[in-house]
């Protein structure tokens, strides 16, 4: 009898394989980083073959470290960096171009052209998304338009598209030898190509973007059996698929309308469960799919996406060489009482929610001779909290349900200074669960549900436990003053690109 469920968590900077027991506790784990490729300013790419190699490596590594075999696993789920776009040849299994990463801004001209007729919100009613470089559809169009022979091969049915979930599942279930070409509703809802109501590819969107339907995967539920794994997981059902932020929502057991979570990673992503109801956003949020369990109705969500949070700390580490390890940012930040009046607005690839300004670029404002690297470190952490506040304000406006507490997860939630400042600037408690890697857990839950390892979603709630809570300690006047300064700083980044 299999005792565990597992997840492949393919993120923006690394791939992980995590094994969980029935109570949701981690029993095995391995992780490997992959190369970030920057061919031009604003361009961000990954090598899909390197990613697939890393995934195979961490599967073997986690099994070896935990002294388990694949036979101990009931099922495996996949969760992934969303919107990152791969187009490959079905016959050779080789990509026609590097994966274009969600942060990449090369499709701004495509988006601007499409926005000339109807504006940035031209397609919001069908797909729930503004026209932005973030999403997969324009990236597919760019590959078909710019890679030699790609469009002809796509028209002939020789090519396949997928976000990273689709690429992993296809390879995992056999690749050129009959691999399953599938995605789930949560990932499909990030392409600008799926209709929110029908949960199928929208023929009008495909026509406008110039994307042949034969290129696209089949859209399935987030929790169902897609196929059987080959390689080191041979014979194990591949039965869960969720975009990373939806997986975190699921792992945080936010199963009721009005429950929300915020994940702090390379970027920052807040999701609010809106139940079976599609809630259009008037405040710059995304209307997206939360998840779909088997034949049950789909669950929708509102999402606020922030492009750069943890990536700002990486930038201080790698580009400015301010410290050797990301965790040291807290040590520097803690040596000063405040940011010395500076704000860092990390609009490296424009601003996402709630602004959607691809013309914005990053800025440090308020500099004086008083400022040192400790103030910069603190301002970098505070930028994450301010951006989260903007998203929370938008969510409250759209949903008319004021959030009373925020469940948090991801790598940055072990930064106590950041979490306390987050509670202070929001004015609500911030709560970290015992398992903070809820993205992997959510994918494992989805896979385990599909094969009966867990009975139903309610049984998963019992696994959720609180590790730490931060309560607001800042007075309202200080909070308002600091936040007003942030809003002013953000406006200084607008209209940088002509």
Topology:
Layout (H helix, E strand, L loop, with lengths): L3 E7 L3 E7 L5 E8 L11 E2 L1 H18 L7 E8 L4 E5 L9 E2 L7 H8 L8 H4 L8 H11 L3 H6 L3 E5 H9 L9 E3 H4 L14 H7 L8 E3 L2 E6 L8 E7 H8 L8 E5 L3 E8 L10 E6 L7 E8 L3 H9 L9 H6 L9 E3 L17 E3 L7 H27 L6 E4 L6 H11 L3 E4 L4 H13 L6 H5 L4 E5 L5 H16 L7
Parallel strand pairs: 1-5, 5-12, 9-10, 13-19, 19-20
Antiparallel strand pairs: 1-2, 2-3, 4-7, 6-8, 11-12, 13-14, 14-16, 15-16, 17-18, 20-21
Helix pairs in contact: 9-14, 10-12, 12-13
Helical percent range?
25-40%
**Strand sequence of the main sheet, in spatial order?**
15-16-14-13-19-20-21
Beta percentage is 15-25%
Structural class estimated from helices and strands = alpha/beta
Mean pLDDT: 93
Which shape, going by the Cα principal axes? globular
**Number of DSSP helical runs:** 16
Largest sheet: 7 strands, mixed
Number of E-state strands: 21
Low-confidence stretches: none
Radius of gyration: 21 Å
What is the straight-line distance between the termini?
A: 62 Å
């Amino acid at each position: 009898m299999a005792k565990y469920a597992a997840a492949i968590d393919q993120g923006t900077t690394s791939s992980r394989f995590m094994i969980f027991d029935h109570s949701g506790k981690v029993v095995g784990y391995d992780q490997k980083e992959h190369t970030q490729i920057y061919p031009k300013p604003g361009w961000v790419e990954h090598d899909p073959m390197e990613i697939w190699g890393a995934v195979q490596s961490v599967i073997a590594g986690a099994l070896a470290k935990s002294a388990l075999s694949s036979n101990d696993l009931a099922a495996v789920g996949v969760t992934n960096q969303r919107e990152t776009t791969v187009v490959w040849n079905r016959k050779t299994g080789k990509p026609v171009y590097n994966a274009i990463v969600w942060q990449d801004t090369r499709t701004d001209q495509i988006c601007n052209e499409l926005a000339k007729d109807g504006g940035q919100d031209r397609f919001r009613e069908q797909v729930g998304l503004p026209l932005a470089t973030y999403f997969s559809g324009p990236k597919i169009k760019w590959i078909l338009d710019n890679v030699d022979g790609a469009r002809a091969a796509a028209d002939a049915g020789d090519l396949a598209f997928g976000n990273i979930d689709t690429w992993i599942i296809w390879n995992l279930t056999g690749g050129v030898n009959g691999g399953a070409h599938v995605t789930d509703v949560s990932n499909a809802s990030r392409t600008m190509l799926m209709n929110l109501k029908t949960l199928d590819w929208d023929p009008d969107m495909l026509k406008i973007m110039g994307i042949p339907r034969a290129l696209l995967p089949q859209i399935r539920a987030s929790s169902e059996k897609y196929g059987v794994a080959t390689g080191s997981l041979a014979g194990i059902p591949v039965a869960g698929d969720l975009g990373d932020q939806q997986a975190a929502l699921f792992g945080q057991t936010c199963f009721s309308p009005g429950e929300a979570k915020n994940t702090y990673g390379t970027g920052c992503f807040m999701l609010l469960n809106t139940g079976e109801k599609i809630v259009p956003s008037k405040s710059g949020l995304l209307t997206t799919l939360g998840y779909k369990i088997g034949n049950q109705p789909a669950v929708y969500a509102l999402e606020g996406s922030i492009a750069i949070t943890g990536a700002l700390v990486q930038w201080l580490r790698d580009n400015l060489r301010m410290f050797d390890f990301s965790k040291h940012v807290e040590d520097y930040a803690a040596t000063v009482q405040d940011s010395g009046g500076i704000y860092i607005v990390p609009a490296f690839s424009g601003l996402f929610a709630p602004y959607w300004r691809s013309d914005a670029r990053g800025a440090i404002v308020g500099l004086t001779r008083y400022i040192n690297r400790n103030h910069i470190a603190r301002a970098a952490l505070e930028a994450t909290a301010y951006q989260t506040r903007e998203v929370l304000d938008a969510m409250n406006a759209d949903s008319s349900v004021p959030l009373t507490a925020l469940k948090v997860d991801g790598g940055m939630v072990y930064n106590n200074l950041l979490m306390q400042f987050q509670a202070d600037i929001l004015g609500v408690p911030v709560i970290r669960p015992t398992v903070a890697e809820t993205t992997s857990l959510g994918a494992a839950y989805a896979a385990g549900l599909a094969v009966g390892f867990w009975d139903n979603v309610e049984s998963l709630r019992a696994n959720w436990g609180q590790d730490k809570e931060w309560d607001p300690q800042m007075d309202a006047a200080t909070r308002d003053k600091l936040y007003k300064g942030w809003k002013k700083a953000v406006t200084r980044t607008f209209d940088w690109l002509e």
